[in-house]
Amino acid sequence: MSEELDAETLEFAHRMFDLARDGATTELAGYVDAGLPVNLTNEKGDTLLILAAYHAHPATVAALLDRGADHTRTNDRGQTALAAAVFRSSGDAVRALLTAGADPDHGNPSAVETAQFFDLSEMLTLLRPA
């Protein structure tokens, strides 16, 4: 059995990643509900959750988390969805990820390190409440 995917399957997968990037929450959630793996990963190790977080789509992040997306996954560069949401200063996405149990110190750089490096004091406050 061949490990290579056919062109139609690859095109479908690319569309799913585009839905995450675009924040097409309802459509993407429908595909996940119909059987699309919620932790689908692209050639760079980015999951649907990481892409939704990086593109600052908190509703999509929440929908994926509600469907079991693994917030502990890192991409090939060691980045997490939480670090991506922090980088984009998406407070709602950060809160959703933290509520789901995401670890602010996980990843390389971690969400905390990202907030510190880019001087994102509001994000750091979300990650390390007083």
Task: Give a verbal description of the structure.
With 130 residues, the protein is mostly helical. It has one domain (7-127): Ankyrin repeat-containing domain (Serine Threonine Protein Phosphatase 5, Tetratricopeptide repeat). The chain has 8 helices and no strands. Keywords: ANK repeat, Repeat. InterPro entries: Ankyrin_rpt, Ankyrin_rpt-contain_sf. ANK repeats lie at residues 44-76, 77-109. This is Ankyrin.
- Radius of gyration (CA) equals 15 Å
Shape by Cα distribution: globular
Please give the domain count: 1
Q: Classify the fold: give the CATH topology.
A: Serine Threonine Protein Phosphatase 5, Tetratricopeptide repeat
Number of contiguous helices: 8
Largest sheet: none
pLDDT < 50 runs, ≥5 residues = none
Q: Tell me what the CATH architecture is.
A: Alpha Horseshoe
Query: What class would the helix/strand composition place it in?
Result: mainly alpha
List the secondary-structure elements in sequence, H or E.
Answer: HHHHHHHH
- Share of residues in strands: under 5%
Keywords: ANK repeat, Repeat
Pfam families: Ank_2 (PF12796)
Organism: Micromonospora maris
Protein name: Ankyrin
Provide keyphrases for this structure:
8 helices; 0% strand; single chain; mainly alpha; 55% helix; 130 residues
What is the strand and helix layout of this fold?
Layout: H1 7-22, H2 25-33, H3 48-54, H4 58-66, H5 81-87, H6 91-99, H7 111-117, H8 121-127
Short description:
The chain has 130 residues and is mainly α. The protein has helices spanning 7-22, 25-33, 48-54, 58-66, 81-87, 91-99, 111-117, 121-127.
